[in-house]
Every structure is written in structure tokens, then in C-alpha cells.
Known about the structure:
A five-stranded parallel sheet has the order 3-2-4-1-5, with helices on both faces. Strands 6-7-10-8-9 form a five-stranded mixed sheet. The chain is α/β, with parallel strands linked by helices. The protein is elongated, with a radius of gyration of 19 Å. It has helices at 17-23, 42-49, 58-63, 88-98, 111-114, 144-152, 167-180, 207-210, 229-236; strands at residues 3-7, 28-32, 54-56, 75-79, 103-106, 129-131, 157-161, 188-193, 201-206, 219-223. Helix content is 30%, strand content 20%.
Amino acid sequence: MVFYLIGLGLNKESISIEAKKELEKCEKVYLEKYTVDFPYSLDELEKALNKKMIFLKREDVESEIFILEAKEKNIALLVYGDPFTATTHSQLIIFCKSKKIPFKIFHNSSIMNSVGETGLSLYKFGKSCSIPKWSENYKPTSFINYLKENKKIKAHSLIIVDIDITFKEAIFELEEASKKEKFSLPKKILVVSKIGTEKQKIIYKKISEIKNEEIEKPFSLIIPSKMHYLERKLLNQ
């Protein structure tokens, strides 16, 4: 019996042929859905995969208990994008090894590599960071430190936006955090929305202009650093 950790990619039909074949062997199929706003409905995903899914909460995945089922039956955990864009999944493999549970991993495209479509070189990206959802008593700005570090080495910054944050909220938090941490944002930033799907948008504008755009989830922000002329040429096109 095997535990399959499967990356779904960015679209509902982006799963690899190899992974889909293995999925057919699984008696139970779990889906992690707490870390992303899917660009399609989960009903559409079930139809595309021809599998009924069991949705897991964060605590369910982090408990690792469900993996023990793989001692008696083939089970799969489906993850949006690639399994290893989240550190939680590395821990799942450590758990499998500790319990001597056979496992197999299927990689796929994710936000980490698909941003190359903007024209920016993947080799020139620095540390990625995330914007958390603010509340009245919780307004962390530490993610700005990553932007500062990347700027020092002339690296681009990919900003992942936490689930439940609207585009306007993300821009507001970015600007407010930058003011507090005395970080100068560039005149123009990049926004990628629903990348890898038919409805993807790649927008490169001044922050003052981009605020008025209607941006659908999931989306991410990119703070570009100094660009090679080929990067600039591709981006401007």
C-alpha cells in the first residue's frame, strides 16, 4: 500500500498523466484546501479527476494521522500547485519514513515557477514571503524584511498573499507596512492572477493605477528589482 502526495498544478486538468493513473488505484483521495483560493470550483476538480474527495483542515494535515491509512490501502493527498511549496508536506514525508509507509511524490507547476511567464528570470528571484491577513490587534510587517534583503542583492521578490485577503487589502497592507518599515516601493509592481489558467492576468503598472484593477483570486504580487534588458523587453510587451 502507498501514500501518494500529488501536485495538482494550476488548472483543474493540470495533473500529470502518471499521477492520474496512480490516483485511480486509490481508495481514498484527500484534498488540502486551506492554503489557497482555488481558481476553479472543487466540483469541477472532482469531475475532471473522476474522484470524490475528502477535504482536510489544517489541523487534519498537520496531525498526520490520516497517513496511517496507507498501511492498509492506497491513499492520496492532493495539493494545489506543487507539494513542496509548503513546508508542511516535507514533514509528511518524514512521518512516512518514520512509520515505514511507502510513498510516492508527483511534482507539478506552481506559483514559484509559473511567474517566469512575466518575463522575469527565475534565477533572479530572492526569498519569497507572504502577506498575512491583518486584524485590529494583529498587523505584522516583518515580511518587509525579505523585500529589503532582496533589494540589497538586486533580486526580485515574490509575495504570496494569504487566503481570505482581497486585492485591495493586500495593496493597502503592502503600502502601510512599507511606510512603517521605511522601505521604498518601486513605481511599478507586478500582479499575477489565476496564472496557469485560461483566465490568467499579468499586470505591470504603477501602484496608484493598479489599485483600481479588478483582481481575482488566487493572486500574487511581485516587486521587481533591477532588470536585464531582456526581462524589461518581455515585461513591457
